[in-house]
Amino acid sequence: MGRSFVYVILGGGVAAGYAALEFANKGVAHGELCIISDEPVAPYERPALSKGFLLPEAPARLPAFHTCVGVNEERLTPKWYKEHGIELILDTRVTSADVRRKTLVTAAGETISYKFLIIATGARALKLEEFGVNGSDAENVCHLRDLADATRLVDLMQASTGGNAVVIGGGYIGMEVAASLVINKINVTMVFPEPHCIPRLFTPKIASFYEEFYKSKGVNFVKGTVLSSFVINPEGKVTGVNLKDGSYLPADLVVVGIGIRRNTSLFEGQLTLEKGGIKVNSMLQTSNSSVYAVGDVASFPVKAFGEIRRLEHVDAARKSARHAVSAIMEPDTTPEFDYLPFFYSRAFSFSWQFYGENLGEAVYFGDFSGTSFGAYWVHNGHLVGSFLEGGSKEEYEALAKATRLRPAIDDMSDLERQGLRFVVTLSQKQPVLPIVDVGSSTSLVVLEKPEYPWHAAAGVVAAASIAAFAYWYGRRRRRW
Q: Cis omega before residue 453 (within 30°)?
């Protein structure tokens, strides 16, 4: 028993939906493409799960956030896939893969063959058991990675109003879920070992701003320690947590957000792995020419940094998916993937964006006692990263342009004095030329000191379009 397709997307997350749309836009024939997903629903925008889905009033629910509404394009409902001849193989787990024979075998024993495979398997939430702590299967302990997790969390929040929640982890998920718990009138304590929240991106000064606001909303922070054990009653429910520093916290609900583990096990020993992911080239192609990898599982060349990186963010998933499809369908005209790392988050009334990397010395600007402030990162005499809270559309555009250009910085004090004026002035000096569009997936290559000025200009405009979308998206879909 088996089926055969020209194109197979393995994984049913954000990247799968955007890849499907790109295939449709490029004229994939009916019956040529399938998506295999272990979830029971068509691909959807995962950012909604930690934002609008958790709201107590008018929460986001499917089909409202199926892909690709995140970039204001078509909502790909099951009906859309049927109309476009794309087969959804849902609620199906693949247990083995053979990239030489170009086959996948499902848990039910079906063999699915392909000509081209896009690996979009994403990642799973890390469990405390992987760190020697048992109890994650208790009825009121939650993770947040998929729709089932989010649905379970909503049910538990509704049963815990006025109670106590402990959030384990101080990253993206921890901070966004903590905000949602507060909005749902639950007392929140956050526990993490680092000295401040979102340590992979924030400096202590930036983190302090958000932590102080969270405290004003009643959130308690316990830093520098980790959970050592759960206190579980005879009914299998957690009533509290013990921390390694000897303290105890009562808990009606525990949310664990301590990171992810990439889903690469099917391909270990078959494809080249690097930096925790599947290594791909600038076309998102793996060490096997018929296999591509996108999203969280892909370790790809980041030209701005001159090295291989693996990025865990929805923006990278969307763009890498579309670019991989372009590389498969139009290999002769698709340029190399040139991605400027971009991150964003929204919680309470705040919304920030970050471009590039937080390497080198941070230079702060703006009013940290107000609602608009930011930072630049300068490394080896060049601006390599930028962050802005509460910016306008034009300011976000300027930030993206400057970060991609990596301008030389001769005077750090002057950069601090100029603040946003530095990037706004720089952006106004750049000529405006048409953008070369590759399935809305990438911008053009821009050298640190461009040999060809039109390359630089096109890259700047593309970066601006990314920033403009991000700003619009934040305003239009703040509930998510």
A: no
Q: In the beta sheet, which residues pair with residue 11?
A: none
E strand residue ranges, 48-186: 87-89, 94-98, 103-106, 111-113, 116-119, 123-125, 141-142, 164-168
Rounded Cα–Cα distance for residues 447 and 457 (Å): 11
What DSSP line would sit under 276-303, residue for residue? TEEE--TTSB-SSTTEEE-GGGEEEEET
Contacts of 215 (CB under 8 A, 6+ apart): 221
pTM (2 decimals)?
0.87
Instruction: Quick: pLDDT tens for 133-162.
Output: 999 999 999 999 999 999 999 999 999 999
Residue 398 corresponds to which amino acid? A
105 — phi, psi (to 5°)? -120, 130
The percent helix, strand, coil of the chain (3-state, each to 5) is 30, 25, 45
Give, as one character, the DSSP assignment of residue 26.
T
Query: Which pLDDT score is estimated for 1?
Result: 66
> What burial letters (b/e) apply to 435-473, b meaning 16+ CB within 10 Å?
beebbbbbbbbbeeeeeeeeebbbbbbbbbbbbebbbeb
CB-based contacts of 368, cutoff 8 Å, min separation 6: 205, 209
DSSP 29: P
Distance CA 478, CA 348 (A): 10
pLDDT tens-digit readout, 175-231: 999 999 999 999 999 999 999 999 999 999 999 999 999 999 999 999 999 999 999
The number of angstroms, rounded, from the C-alpha of 23 to the middle of its chain's C-alpha atoms is 22
d(CA 378, CA 54): 38
Q: Check if the beta carbon of residue 423 is closer than 8 Å to that of residue 402.
A: yes
Within 407-479, residue ranges assigned H as helices are 412-418, 420-428, 453-476
CB atoms closer than 10 angstroms to residue 131: 11
The C-alpha atoms of residue 115 and residue 32 are separated, in whole angstroms, by 10
273 residue type, one letter: L
